[in-house]
Amino acid sequence: ESNSDSYSPKWSPDNRYLAVLSDRGDQHSQIWILDRRGGDAQPLTEFKQGVFSYSWSPKSNEILLEVKDPTPADLDEEIRPNPRPYVIDRLQFKEDFVGYRDHQP
User: What is the pTM of this model?
Assistant: First the structure.
């Protein structure tokens, strides 16, 4: 018997997937995805603080998440002992005056 809750179901705009927030297997809610063609729900996220809400993109290929900002203690766990700076010396810029390049198709 499971003591998990699932809520906030949302169909993808293409009606292929159903996403739900569920706390199954975790004390915090995560997004789980069910394929309309069948099969078991699959976890999509694994955020330490959980997911509070989400929205599908119009093309059904992305999900916007609302998650809790990590506490300072959570951030300390992720800091490497000897962090090295990441240097960016060039940025690609669009010639159309719209902004930075996004490398998505």
Answer: 0.62
